[in-house]
Each structure stands twice: as structure tokens, then as C-alpha cells.
């Protein structure tokens, strides 16, 4: 059954312009913005679990089966898919979509769409885009399952960088703005202007989100 929900009173502000399903478990201090829907899609995906002090903006959609940790901020017009896990302290920026079964760690900044089944570690800044390889163009879009990328702890993905296929990046790696990634990028490496070098080569000009002891 799709799009089935019932109203539930918001903990913190007026509920007349939002829908919060009875299958949503809300922690303390949760705020939900106007015209947002908490409980969308197939109810068989399960309950929605939202931690304490979560801020969800206006016009957002959170699908059944999503889990959102404490102190997460989801900006206006964002979409959280079924089975998604977002851990504590992460922020999803304006209008970004996190698709089904993606996993995002703690204290991340998500400024690009996150493809289904992508795994993002802790302390990642992700401002890029992800595309599947789409190796079988004749397959049904909803039934074709391809590997998704793994972006490891402390990695920074620059604005409009494109990650293609099931590659692994990091930990503590840096990908420059606008780069296209088709192969793995190792720990403490930087991919800038089509060249892979150790991040230390740039002497602090480009930085990952890791302590010096991790580099």
C-alpha cells in the first residue's frame, strides 16, 4: 500500500499543514516544517525512527523505514528514502535527496544527491553527485541493482564532482570540485585536475576532515 498515513500531532509546532504518520516515532524536541510529510510510500517498509532535537524543514518527505539520529538537520525541500539511515549530527542541505537504503554516518555535510545503497562514513563533506554505471541500458530502471560507492570517514567530495559506479574513496581523501571519479581513491589521497597524489603534497592547501594523526 502506498501513500497511506494518518495524522499525528507534532511535538513542537502547529500540525495543520503537515502530515506525520502514526508509524513515526519522534524523540524529544523534534521540529517539522510546514507542508512536510513524515510517512510516505510503502508502509511495509516499517516505522520511521527520528531521534532527539531533529530539525526537518518545510516541504520535506521522509519515507517509511527511515532512521534519523539525534541532532540531524534536514533542510527545506529534501527527501529521505525508504530504509535510509542518517546518524547523529549530520546535515542534509537544501533540496537534496537521499535515496533508498543509503547509509550516512555521523557529523556529515550532505550537499549533493545520494544514490540508493551508497555508504558514507563519519565526518564526510559530500558536495558532489553519484551515478550508477548503468551497464544494462535495456534493464528495467526500478529492478536493476548495481553497486553503489563507499565514501569513507573524513573524506571531502568537492562541488559537482561526479562519482560513477561502486568505487571506494578514502578514508581521509579529497576529491576536487568538478572531477569525475571512476576508480578507487585510497586513504590520504587527493584527486585534483585528473591526477592522484598524496594529500600531503598540497601542504595544507586542500584538507580532508581528519586529524593530523590520521594523515
Polypeptide structure, described:
By secondary structure, this protein is mainly β. The chain folds into two domains: 1-86, UDP N-Acetylglucosamine Acyltransferase, domain 1; 115-208, 3 Solenoid (UDP N-Acetylglucosamine Acyltransferase, domain 1). Helices cover 0% and strands 29% of the residues. It has no helices and 26 strands. It has strands spanning 19-20, 24-26, 31-32, 37-40, 48-50, 55-56, 61-63, 67-68, 73-74, 79-80, 85-86, 91-92, 97-98, 103-104, 109-110, 119-120, 125-126, 129-131, 150-151, 156-157, 162-164, 168-169, 174-175, 180-181, 189-192, 195-198. The strands form four sheets. It has a ten-stranded mixed beta sheet with strand order 3-6-9-12-15-17-20-23-25-26, with no helix packed on it. Strands 2-5-8-11-14-16-19-22 form an eight-stranded parallel beta sheet, with no helix packed on it. β25 and β26 form a beta hairpin. The chain starts with 18 loop residues before the first strand and ends in a 17-residue tail after the last strand.
Amino acid at each position: 500500500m502506498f501513500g497511506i498515513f494518518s495524522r499525528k500531532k507534532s511535538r513542537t509546532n502547529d500540525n495543520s499543514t503537515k502530515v506525520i504518520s502514526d508509524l513515526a516515532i519522534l524523540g524529544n524536541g523534534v521540529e517539522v516544517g510546514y507542508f512536510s510529510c513524515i510517512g510516505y510510500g510503502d508502509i511495509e517498509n516499517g516505522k520511521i525512527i527520528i531521534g532527539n532535537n531533529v530539525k526537518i524543514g518545510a516541504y520535506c518527505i521522509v519515507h517509511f523505514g527511515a532512521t534519523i539520529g539525534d541532532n540531524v538537520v534536514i533542510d527545506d525541500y529534501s527527501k529521505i528514502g525508504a530504509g535510509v539511515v542518517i546518524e547523529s549530527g549530520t546535515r542534509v542541505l537544501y533540496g537534496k535527496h537521499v535515496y533508498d537504503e543509503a547509509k550516512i554516518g555521523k557529523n556529515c555535510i550532505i550537499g549533493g544527491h545520494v544514490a540508493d545503497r551508497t555508504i558514507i562514513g563519519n565526518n564526510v563533506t559530500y558536495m558532489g553527485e553519484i551515478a550508477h554505471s548503468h551497464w544494462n541500458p535495456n534493464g528495467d530502471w526500478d529492478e536493476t541493482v548495481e553497486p553503489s560507492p563507499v565514501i569513507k570517514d573524513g573524506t571531502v567530495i568537492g562541488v559537482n564532482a561526479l562519482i560513477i559506479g561502486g568505487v571506494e574513496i578514502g578514508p581521509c581523501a579529497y576529491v576536487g570540485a568538478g572531477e569525475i571519479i571512476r576508480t578507487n581513491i585510497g586513504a590520504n589521497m587527493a584527486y585534483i585536475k585528473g591526477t592522484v597524489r598524496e594529500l600531503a603534497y598540497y601542504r595544507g592547501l586542500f584538507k580532508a576532515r581528519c586529524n593530523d594523526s590520521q594523515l
